[in-house]
Write a structure and sequence with these properties.
The complex is a heterodimer. Chain A is α/β, with parallel strands linked by helices. In chain A, 31% of the residues lie in helices and 21% in strands. Chain A has two domains: 1-28; 49-260, Rossmann fold, CATH 3.40.50. In chain A, the strands form four sheets. Chain A has a nine-stranded mixed beta sheet. Chain A is globular and about 80 Å long. Chain A starts with a strand and ends with a helix. Chain B is an alpha+beta fold. Chain B has 14 helices and 19 strands. In chain B, strands 2, 4, 5, 7, 8 and 9 form a six-stranded mixed beta sheet that branches. In chain B, strands 10, 11, 12, 13 and 16 form a five-stranded antiparallel beta sheet that branches. In chain B, strands 14, 15, 17, 18 and 19 form a five-stranded antiparallel beta sheet that branches. The chains are: A alpha/beta, B alpha+beta.
């Protein structure tokens, strides 16, 4: 028995209250995270929470509409795993953004992005295929190694990066490409068959657009949490650092990107966090609820 | 009831995890739509192209030095080159199997290279023998031994044909070798030079042999035959399991006498044939293990009379290898199949069973072309096929279709077939658990059974004898012993003090009655019963009215604080006695 404000409360009630509190904490923890692929709110291996933490450390600015893109030529825009189609206005704004001397990094393994690439006037095309290689870091054919090609500033000091189920690219100037012992596993049997030929495949390519530069990375998986663990020999971390520091201003697209995917609870929290009016409204509501509670208690004999 | 459900729910939840206690591991969450969890995978050596490509380059370069040394008749260096070439080829074989590239174009390169290795080994042996023949020719020419010169010339002819065949085979590998080199952007200068050098070796051998043949040809005198022993081949182009019919005539034969003629194929004696009375002879050679290509034949009578050299061509025939779906017995798979060249079964052929590209078993075909072999495979899924390499046969290699075989895990199989009891250990654990549970439950219930009701609170009977009664109660084991007799019931004095005493002394009666009723109804917690609950519990019992009457009076006396009249007390005692008598019997 405990005495609280002159009333006795049984031990069972205390335990129940504690359990309720724990349950509430667990429920909140559960609701504040997600397991959606590529989501920045996903702290699991397939999320991008660590990348966004890294980008936050670099002072990244989230951009939801291309109209918000700055006109200065000192920015790099990271367009990670876009979903849905870009309208003509968005494409022309992105094109203008590049034309002003900025860098656009498109990270996608879907052929759907070829429309965007075509709209941007790029000759690079994404081919969604099951790219496999004998040269790998893990015992899985899709754990493909990409070797640096050319002398692009992004590959400085990197001999190879580790990819994870990448697609391949056509066109542009190669930045990273697979070794000769790579193939498209068309029959999906994880092994090299008679009909599957060995050749080099481009996985990161670049193209000059006026003063600006377009990079296309055919494997968004290199940015997931599970791939950001430093490993000996693989230059993934350095490559990402090079991207984040390529220009003084780091912009991250969040209007189309799948990294912005979040469950409803997180969206509500974000809405509150991002808007002063909603913050004020919430605080008012809380005060109101507390006042009502106190008044109710006083009325009771 | 609720507690029981919760306990059951907990047990079910624990039971669900009991078979697989690991709640999470990276392997259980290894794959998402777009990627694989690296934490769930084993690390391997990274840049394997760095191993393969130099090896392919070495294999392209090796023939250059080897053929050059053969051309220069430097057999010591050539032997060393050949040994190195063999070792590098072996390394590539292992690497391709390890990299699971047994169906790749790189494997085609490997096979072409294997052919080249075989060709160059034969070229090495052939040219070495050719050099020996050159030395012997000089020696016999000096001694004027025409028979030995003829023998050398004939063997030289067989060698020439063989070397020509080898060159043709070497050219056949060109396409694969050079295409692979182009694809991997490797230098092919040495390989191309080896082809040129090989051609020059063939030309040298050709020229020498022509000179030797010219030297051997002695024009026959007019009216005489150039050969005293003639030989003809009926069918010059044959394939596997076909006969080469050879017939000839010994012109120096004495009529009516049987003579013996030796027959040589590729300078190897294949038999001695007895001629007929007219000197004719015939021999049918069955093509089985003869290599594809040109073969030379000649006959010799009495070691000095030679026939002319004849040739026949063995053509390569394609084969088909039919493999039935392996039948599974436990962890063993039985492979059966049939190897045919056209419609002809291939006899005594070497068959390999490959599992995951690696040789897992070998066997030989029977006379009917059928083969059968049993193979033990580890649990899991395997891709297996049969392979006929065609070596030593004039037959093209062939392979069967690939089957995917699933070998079940014996332990899982045992469980799925007969459940838990299939495993004696599991059955034992289960039996012990059940027995232990039963025993624990039995003792627990026995301990909690209301057979023994703890002694009622001590109350003092008026008129003494309380200590004796208490002593009896302590010794006694039943509730009946605790019930006071009617004569000993308390009769309190009148007044306030008397009321208080009455109320205090009524409690033991209530307590005793409560114990007796609880015992009768097998209720485990008698002390928790209030007077009203006691009354309610007796619903449906014949003692209900007596018990309720007593508890009603008791309530009034105990809680209302009112005085108990003589009449009420009498009524309560009667009710109590009636109830106790009914419950325990009149004797008590």
């Amino acid at each position: 028995m405990r005495i609280w404000r002159g009333e006795t409360i049984s031990r069972a009630a205390w335990v129940a209250a504690l359990l309720l509190l724990l349950g509430l904490f667990a429920a909140l923890s559960h609701l504040s995270a997600t397991t959606i692929d590529y989501s920045r709110y996903n702290p699991e291996w397939n999320g991008t929470s660590r990348l966004f933490q890294l980008m936050d450390d670099h002072g990244a600015i989230m951009v939801t509409r291309p109209v918000d893109l700055p006109a200065s030529g000192d920015a790099i825009l990271l367009l990670l795993v876009p979903d849905g189609e870009f309208d003509q206005d968005e494409i022309s704004r992105l094109r203008r953004f590049m034309g002003e001397g900025n860098i656009l990094v498109l990270v996608s393994d879907r052929e759907a992005e070829n429309l965007l690439l075509s709209g941007l006037g790029s000759g690079i095309r994404v081919h969604d295929a099951n790219l496999s290689s004998v040269d790998r870091s893990y015992d899985h054919p899709s754990s493909v190694l990409g070797f640096s090609a050319g002398d692009d500033p992004l590959v400085a000091g990197i001999s190879r990066i580790l990819l994870n189920s990448p697609s391949y690219l056509e066109g542009g100037v190669p930045v990273f490409e697979t070794s000769l012992l790579s193939w498209i596993d068309a029959d999906g049997d994880s092994r090299l068959s008679k009909e599957e030929t060995l050749q080099r495949y481009r996985v990161v390519a670049t193209e000059q657009h006026g003063e600006g530069i377009l990079y296309v990375i055919a494997d968004p998986s290199i940015f997931i949490n599970g791939m950001l663990t430093p490993r000996s020999g693989d230059g993934n971390s350095v490559f990402i650092q090079h991207i984040l520091t390529a220009k003084p201003l780091l912009l991250v697209e969040q209007g189309h990107s799948r990294t912005a995917s979040a469950p409803a609870v997180i969206r509500v929290v974000n809405l509150v966090k991002e808007s002063t009016i909603t913050k004020m409204a919430l605080i008012t509501l809380i005060f109101l609820a507390v006042s009502l509670f106190i008044l109710q208690r006083r009325k009771e004999p | 009831m609720v507690s029981a459900i919760l306990v059951l729910a907990c047990l079910v939840l624990i039971g669900m995890q009991a078979w697989s206690p690991l709640l999470y591991s990276p392997r259980s969450d290894a794959r998402a739509e777009d990627h694989t969890n690296p934490a769930a995978l084993d690390r391997v050596t990274g840049d394997r192209a760095a191993q393969v490509l130099p090896l392919v380059s070495d294999l392209l370069n090796s023939p250059g030095s080897l053929v050059l040394n053969i051309k220069g008749r430097d057999f010591e260096y050539a032997a060393r080159d050949l040994q190195e070439y063999r070792e590098i080829s072996r390394n590539l074989d292992s690497l391709i199997i390890n990299l699971e590239m047994t169906e790749s174009e790189l494997d085609e390169f490997r096979r072409a290279n294997q052919q080249n290795l075989q060709i160059l080994t034969e070229l090495f042996n052939g040219t070495e023998r050719w050099e020996e023949l050159q030395t012997l020719e000089i020696r016999y020419r000096d001694t004027g031994d025409s028979q030995m010169l003829t023998s050398i010339t004939y063997e030289g002819e067989a060698l020439r044909r063989r070397i020509q065949d080898l060159y043709r085979d070497y050219l056949d590998q060109d396409q694969v070798m050079l295409e692979t080199a182009d694809k991997f952007a490797l230098d092919t200068t040495d390989y191309r030079q080896s082809v040129t050098d090989f051609r020059e070796i063939v030309q040298q051998v050709d020229q020498n042999q022509e000179e030797r043949m010219d030297a051997l040809q002695v024009p026959a005198p007019p009216g005489e035959r150039p050969y005293k022993l003639t030989l003809l081949i009926e069918n010059g182009r044959v394939s596997y399991r076909e006969n080469v019919a050879m017939q000839g005539l010994l012109w120096v034969h004495e009529k009516g006498r049987a003579d013996e003629v030796d027959l040589f194929i590729d300078s190897h004696k294949v038999g001695t044939i007895v001629t007929g009375p007219d000197g004719s002879f015939r021999y049918d050679h069955l093509v089985e293990r003869d290599r594809a290509g040109t073969h030379t034949v000649f006959a010799v009578y009495s070691g000095s009379v030679f026939s002319e050299i004849r040739t026949f061509l063995v053509e390569t025939e394609s084969t088909s290898l039919d493999l039935e779906f392996p039948s599974l017995q436990g962890g063993h798979a039985l492979f059966t199949g049939l190897l045919r060249a056209g419609t002809t079964p291939v006899q005594n052929a070497h068959i390999e069973i490959l599992a995951e590209g690696k040789r897992a078993a070998t066997t030989f075909t029977g006379t009917d072309g059928h083969f059968s072999v049993e193979l033990k495979l580890s649990p899991g899924t395997h891709r297996a096929k049969a392979l006929f390499s065609g070596e030593t046969y004039p037959l093209a290699p062939s392979e069967s279709v690939t089957y995917e075989i699933s070998i079940p895990d014996p332990s899982l199989q045992l469980q799925s077939e007969t459940g838990l009891l299939a495993n004696p250990l599991h059955a034992g654990i289960l039996a012990v658990s059940v027995c232990a549970s039963c025993l624990i439950a039995f003792f627990y219930l026995r301990r909690r059974r209301p057979g023994y009701i703890p002694p009622a609170p001590v109350f003092h009977l008026p008129g003494g004898g309380a200590e004796e009664g208490a002593g009896e109660k302590e010794e006694g084991g039943s509730a009946a012993d605790l019930v006071p007799s009617l004569g000993d019931l308390p009769i309190p004095d009148s007044g306030e003090a008397g009321d208080a005493d009455t109320r205090g002394e009524l409690y033991p009666l209530f307590s005793t009655l409560r114990m007796a009723v609880s015992r009768h109804l097998a209720f485990f917690h008698p002390l928790s019963l209030t007077p009203r609950e006691l009354c309610t519990m007796c619903r449906g019992l014949p003692i209900r009215s007596a018990v309720c009457r007593f508890t009603e009076g008791y309530e009034k006396a105990r809680y209302a604080g009112g005085a108990v009249s003589e009449g009420d007390r009498e009524l309560m005692v009667q009710s109590y006695s009636s109830a106790i008598e009914n419950l325990e019997g009149r004797d008590h």
